[in-house]
Amino acid sequence: MFSLFGSKAHLSLTVDGSQFLPGDVVKAHLEVKIDKDIDVRGATISLVRANRYQYRYTSTNSEGDDTTASRWKTDEVPAASLPIGEPGKWPKGEISRDFELAVPADALGSSAGQITGISWLVRARLDISGRDASTESPIRVLAVKHRFASWGDGEVSTSGVDDCALEFINLSTSLLRPGESIRGGLRLTPTKSFKAGEIHAELARLERVPQGEGNRRLTPLVTGSLGRDVQLTAGEPQELAFELTLPADASPTFAAPQSNLHWLLRGVVHRGMLHHDPTISKEVVVFNAGAAEDVGDKENPAA
C-alpha cells in the first residue's frame, strides 16, 4: 500500500490480492480517519489504468533552429469507480468501508518496456478544502491469450531479400508465455552466391509511440546464432533450425491509444557494411495468464 496523507484526513487502503485477470473483482478495504470536521466536495475509490509513454517533439529556439527532444507522459483512465460517501460535511471520526471494483473484461495486461508501459492501481481520494487526501495501491493485471491472439496470424515482412529469399518454416507456435520457447527453421534461397558473416534468429521487443514526432524502440532480447561464415550458393536452399526461449520477465503484448508493444521473431543474414542484410520478421504474441485463465486461477499463473 502507498499512502498520501492530507492535513485533515488520513486514508489507509488494503487490497485483497495483488494480481488479477480481466473480469475479476478487486476487493478493497478503506479506512478514513478524520481529525476534525471537513467539507468534502467529492469522494471516490477507483480502479485506474495508466499508460506511460515517452514521445518525441520538435521545438524552435529563439534563433529559429529546430531541436528534437523527448518527454514522458502518463494517461490515466478510470476503469471502475465508486463513491466513498456523499459530498457535504463529514464529522470528526473514523470510517471503515469495503468496496468491489470489477476489472474490465477487455483489460490490457500490466506491461513495461523502455519507452512505454501499462500499469494498474486502486486509488481512493477525498476532494476537500485545503489539501486533498488520497492513497493508492498498485495491482497487476495478467494478459490473457485471446486478447491479441490474432496478431500472431499476421503477414510476414521481409527486407533486403533481392539476393536471398527468406522463409520461416515449421514454427511451433505464435503465442508465448514468458519462459516458453519457440522452435522452427529459417529457409534461405539465394539467387546470388555470397558468404554470410553470420546468420541468426532473434526475439525482439518493438515499442511504438505515434504521438508527436513519433518514437520507436526495437530491442533484441534473445538471439541464437545459426552459423558464421556461411557460404550460400545461388539456387541451393538451406534450412537452419532454431529454438529461442522468451525471457522469464518478458512484458506482454498490448495496444493502447497512445502506445503499443509488440514482439517479433526475426531472422537476419549479415552480409557486411556494403550490403543490405536480408531480414524476415513475424509477430508473436506474448501473454502471461496461466492455463486456467478462463476460470480465474490467480494462485499459480505462468509468470
Write up what this structure looks like.
- The protein is an all-beta fold.
- The chain has two domains: 140 residues, Immunoglobulin-like; 148 residues, Immunoglobulin-like (Sandwich).
- Helices cover 0% and strands 61% of the residues.
- It is built from no helices and 21 strands.
- A hairpin with an 8-residue loop joins strand 20 and strand 21.
- It is elongated, with a radius of gyration of 25 Å.
- The N terminus and C terminus are likely disordered.
Give keywords:
21 strands; seven-stranded mixed β-sheet; Immunoglobulin-like; 0% helix
Fraction of residues in helices?
Answer: under 10%
Please, how many domains?
Answer: 2
Reported CATH architecture of the largest domain: Sandwich
Overall shape: it is: elongated
What order do the helices and strands come in, and which of them pair?
Blueprint: E1 2-4, E2 9-15, E3 19-20, E4 25-34, E5 38-60, E6 66-83, E7 88-90, E8 93-102, E9 111-112, E10 116-128, E11 133-141, E12 157-159, E13 164-169, E14 175-176, E15 181-190, E16 194-209, E17 215-232, E18 238-245, E19 254-255, E20 260-270, E21 279-286
Parallel strand pairs: 3-11, 14-21
Antiparallel strand pairs: 1-11, 2-4, 4-8, 5-6, 5-7, 5-10, 9-10, 10-11, 12-21, 13-15, 15-18, 16-17, 16-20, 19-20, 20-21
Brief overview:
Helix content is 0%, strand content 61%. The protein is mainly beta and 303 residues long.
